[in-house]
Design brief:
Strand content: 15-25%
Protein name: Tr-type G domain-containing protein
GO molecular function, one term: GTP binding
Structural class: alpha+beta
CATH class of the largest domain: Alpha Beta
Bound molecules: guanosine-5'-triphosphate, magnesium ion
Number of domains: 5
Shape: elongated
Number of helices: 19
Number of strands: 33
Largest sheet: 8 strands, antiparallel
CATH architecture of the largest domain: 3-Layer(aba) Sandwich
InterPro entries: Beta-barrel_SelB, EF-Tu_GTPase, EFTu-like_2, G_TR_CS, P-loop_NTPase, SelB_WHD4, Small_GTP-bd, T_Tr_GTP-bd_dom
Keywords: Elongation factor, GTP-binding, Nucleotide-binding, Protein biosynthesis
Helix content: 25-40%
Organism: Gemmata massiliana
Distance between the termini: 82 Å
Mean pLDDT: 85
Length: 749
């Protein structure tokens, strides 16, 4: 099975990148009329090179300083770089800038082509070679071969192919990933611990160690820049959307949506399975770099597959770059102009999508497995200020964020310092003018707001973040934990930030760099050890919450119950709904019910689905007094409107008048009895019935006398007078001469 990898060119304008790709592949990546006319590359172009056991997708980038943003879109998702330097020109500004960008993007493998070798003598070549060695010292290209080539004489082309093949085989066995974090030796000093308030400069005492090899909410913004840059490259304009431009091209520009069967095009005897490839166990993701229309088939989008795989017929989420998404179906697939049944990481892909209007597709959008990515206007990052930069990166600096194929205006909020000095790291949040879709560990690049210089870059630590207060030590410590080598530590930090809202297991792929096949094991370790708590809801909802947060919520429920017990010391239990209603700021009724159930299960609370009390609450009545209370309630229920007098129970209360009063008050507080006077209590049921009858009677006619109300209730005058006064008191009736009328005429009881 051939190995698929993506190679990107890099280097200063006119140094011979496109010419070199052409002699290597026979494909001219400069396709646009404007590119032809001006003799320069404007936007990224594509080619492919079959080296037998290695298949390379090639992204050729422009060297012009004005088109660095296109270079950045092309460099996303590449596995290897081919740094091109003209022997007659040596190291130039974009040689440096492109190399810096490749380093920031975490590219770890590459070769150097010393082009136009036919134009210089041996001595010049050697001098330029020395300058190059100096340039790449300490970078991923430090030990890369420098191969003199000529697109005109063919010098070095065979050697270059051999070197490429050899490197690809080595890279394949190293299992690289485009989301590899910044290699330590190139990244300057790692972020310091955050407890020091000083600027991010000077040596760090306790460096944050990041993993050597990893894979891959909205807060208040700090006023991002108003106008996001145009999604289309300068000079290309609508031409990029012109199907004719693309249909005429080779590589992945020509699209034929129907696979022509197994073994087609030298791909092998069967389509490779998703897991047979590096990153194959990850979820699919493709940052879109172009789109076009194919007559009769509709919209086709292209990009480098940065993780996972897809097959024809799959459903994907189309992230439109404005925070909205749509589910779309893969109607057909192409890889370098050949139909394919599936495409995977390391391949260029052209995806024919059903139901996607072409005019709505733009660079910077993404296709991904549904529910993998989440757009966010705030991301938390580890940020490195380029050693080349003069001023470092200051708090509140307006910048351009380049991540994936998107470019978005942003404002930097430095969390642990005021300035990141050149060559240093810091922790930051980026507040964006448009939402972006990122994953944990994803590299990005920052350029200045006028798009003239590369300022730095780093890795995403929180793809969807809420605003963190600067120098908030606890939050910053948790952010540092998100960069731990340990999956468990990262997952717990995710849980910490998710708070009482919790998170779903699958979120860990995006927010902690956990491989999908590691989720179950990780979650079960964390729940078994009691660090995470899983709450299952009736609705099949499965939420993971940091156990500390669960404990906090439990404490809140207990506190609330405690307050209610203190407010009503006579009440033995409280209405569960009313208790939880006092915590409605938590904003999740299901969660509170689950917490109450846990408290019942762990016997910190007693009761049932209706009424609850703290297990440690000491009710005011003894067990015997409670029995008497039940008896009294019973007697009142059966007596209706002719209730017994309290003193009838004095003997049973041991002659203790205060205790007897308490018993009646508890019965009232618990809602069983209603006090009319100290001598008259009604059962709650009788009181409700009384209100109903009186209301009904008074709804018609002039009103009713006390005698009439007495008859209505079938009781005595001695009882009727205080009852009428009670009804006045509670606002149901009022006096009108000798009569009682409804206090609110419209009241219906
Ligand atoms: N003599 C000589 N000329 C070369 C060689 N390679 C490229 N050129 C010439 O250099 C000029 C620029 O070549 P390109 O391949 O377009 O350079 P590029 O790096 O792709 O330029 P941009 O994409 O615009 O950054 C063209 O006129 C080429 O013919 C070479 O090996 N020898
Ligand atoms: Mg070119």
């Amino acid at each position: 099975m051939p190995r698929d990898l993506i190679l990107g060119t890099a280097g200063h304008i006119d140094h011979g990148k496109t010419s070199l790709v052409k002699v290597l592949t026979g494909i001219d990546c400069d396709r646009l009329p404007e590119e032809k006319a001006r003799g320069i590359t404007i936007d990224i172009g594509f080619a492919n090179l079959d080296l037998g056991d290695v298949r390379l997708g090639i992204v050729d980038v422009p060297g012009h300083e004005r088109f660095v943003k296109n270079m950045l879109a092309g460099a996303t998702g590449i596995d290897l770089a081919l740094l091109v330097v003209a022997a007659d020109d040596s190291v130039m500004p974009q040689t440096r800038e492109h190399l810096e960008i490749l380093k920031l993007l975490g590219i770890r493998n590459g070769l150097i082509a010393l082009t136009k070798a036919d134009l210089v003598d041996e001595t010049t070549r050697d001098v330029v070679g020395l300058e190059l060695r100096e340039l790449v010292r300490g970078s991923f290209l430090e030990d890369a071969p420098i191969i003199p080539t000529s697109a005109h004489t063919g010098l070095g082309i065979t050697e270059l192919k051999d070197a490429l093949r050899e490197m690809c085989l080595r890279v394949g066995s190293e299992e690289p990933n485009p989301l590899t974090p910044f290699p330590k030796k190139e990244g300057g000093t790692e972020p310091k611990t955050v407890l020091s308030p000083s600027p991010c400069s000077g040596p760090r005492e306790a460096p944050l160690t990041g993993p050597e090899s990893k894979q891959g909410g909205v807060g208040e913004g700090l006023q991002p820049q108003p106008t996001p840059p145009s999604p289309l490259p300068e000079g290309k304009g609508e031409q990029a959307r012109d199907p004719a431009v693309f249909e005429a091209t080779s590589a992945d520009n020509s699209f034929s949506p129907f696979p022509s069967g197994r073994g087609d095009g030298g791909v092998g005897s069967s389509p490779p399975s998703a897991n047979a490839h590096r990153g194959g166990s990850s979820w699919f993701r493709l940052p879109i770099d172009r789109s076009f229309v194919v007559q009769g088939h509709g919209t086709v989008v292209t990009g480098s597959v940065v993780s996972g795989s897809i097959a024809v017929g799959d459903e994907l989420e189309w992230h439109r770059g404005d925070g909205t998404t749509d589910l779309v179906r893969v109607r057909g697939l192409n890889n370098h102009g050949r139909p394919a049944t599936e495409v995977h990481r390391g391949q260029r892909a052209a995806v024919n999508l059903a139901g996607v209007p072409h005019e709505q597709v733009r660079r910077g959008q993404e296709l991904a497995r549904p529910d993998y990515l989440l757009p966010s206007k705030v991301v938390t990052v580890r940020l490195f200020a380029s050693a080349e930069g003069r001023h470092g990166i200051k708090h509140r600096l307006p910048v351009r964020l380049h991540v994936g194929t998107s470019e978005v205006m942003a404002t930097v909020s430095l969390l642990d310092c005021d300035t990141i000095d050149p060559g240093q790291w810091g922790l930051a949040q980026l507040f964006l003018s448009e939402p972006v879709t990122t994953v944990w560990g994803q590299p990005f690049v920052l350029r200045d707001s006028s798009a003239e210089h590369t300022l730095g870059g780093g890795q995403v630590v929180q793809p969807t973040a809420a605003k963190v207060r600067r120098r908030h030590i606890e939050a910053i410590e948790q952010i540092e934990k998100l960069w731990s080598d340990e999956l468990q530590t990262r997952a717990l930090a995710v849980a910490w930030f998710a708070g009482t809202q919790g998170f779903e297991p699958d979120d860990l792929v995006r927010s902690a760099g956990v491989e999908p096949n590691q989720i179950e094991g990780l979650v079960s370790q964390l729940t078994t050890s009691g660090k995470l708590t899983e709450l299952a809801f009736a609705s099949n909802r499965r939420l993971l919450i940091h156990t500390e947060r669960v404990t906090q919520l439990e404490a809140r429920v207990l506190d609330t119950l405690g307050t209610m017990h203190a407010e009503n010391p006579l009440m033995t239990t409280h209405d569960r709904q009313k208790v939880l209603a006092r915590l409605d700021f938590v904003g999740d009724e299901q969660l509170l019910q689950a917490i109450a159930d846990r408290l019942l299960r762990t016997k910190k609370v007693v009761g049932d689905t209706r009424r609850i009390a703290r297990a440690d609450f000491k009710p005011k009545l003894s067990a015997n007094q409670r029995k008497l209370k039940d008896k009294i309630v019973e007697a009142h229920v059966s007596a209706g409107f002719a209730p017994p007098e309290p003193k009838e129970f004095a003997n049973q209360a041991g002659g203790n008048a205060t205790a007897l009063k308490d018993i009646f008050e508890v019965a009232c507080a618990e809602g069983f009895l209603v006090r009319v006077t100290d001598e008259i209590y009604l059962s709650a049921k009788a009181e409700t019935e009384m209100r109903r009858r009186v209301t009904q009677r008074l709804q018609t006619g002039p009103g009713a006398t006390v005698a009439e109300i007495r008859d209505l209730l079938g009781t005595t005058r001695k009882f009727a007078v205080p009852v009428c006064e009670y009804l006045d008191r509670v606002g149901l009736t009022k006096r009108a001469g000798d009569l009682r009328v409804l206090a609110e005429p419209a009241a219906t009881g």
